[in-house]
Sequence to fold (256 residues):
Amino acid sequence: MSFDLQRARAVGSSVLASTLRGWRGSSASRSVQPPAQLLELFDREGCAHCRFVREALTELNLDVRIVPIPLGGTRFRTRLMEISGSDQVPYLVDPNTGTQIKGSDAIVQYLFEQYGNRPVPAQLKATGANVVKSKLATVVRGSLGLEVRPSKAVDQDMTLYSFESSPYSRLVRERLCELEIPYTLVNIGKQQRADVGPATFRLHLGEYKPLPNTKRSSMLAEVGNVQVPYLIDPNRDTRMFESADILQYLNQNYAL
Ligand SMILES: N[C@@H](CCC(=O)N[C@@H](CS)C(=O)NCC(=O)O)C(=O)O
Fold:
């Protein structure tokens, strides 16, 4: 299959995955205050239940350290077993309150109570229909983001700017999970109409202005553009946009 066709299939199936979940994990709260210390989530990108937690984190505009636990992966499994007594994901650690929780419903409930101060949206609960749709979102991606691939360990965590429903970001999150690369997930969901659309073709006329004093405005000031995925790899002093380039970079430098 040609590279172009492969790429079109990857992006198309990722759009379908987000559509199956009703594009949850697109918008971000304007009022949630970020906690002092970074939350930590033991996560598997292709896990249907983990997805509810990541959608909640985007919608609450919260960043998180992602610790990948792909099937067959061993790099972080021992630590998860030690702190939680099992290797089940999702598992949340909140150092701000000393809370550790397993299970998507309990975690999402905690996040909305602690940070959102509002009820959990029905679509983020692990009901039968929601779980089926979330599983289908993985199936249409050919189960990528579920199983480990041999990789080199990194010394320092990477950083990924993303939001949960972003079809391009998903491709990168899948690979980071498979390669067991831990990263700070900076969620920059949409906070106003001008944020909607691809960076090169926003559904808004005129110069793009993010809301002031937000992660989007900081990104624009520091990087000169607001687009996801955006990867920072301190191990190789590399910063890059464009999902296809990022995937190639991760494969070349970290896959074995
Ligand atoms: N060609 C880019 C496209 C990236 C892209 O269009 N990302 C969208 C989100 S899926 C975006 O950054 N939109 C602008 C925004 O969210 O402000 C890639 O493959 O990474």
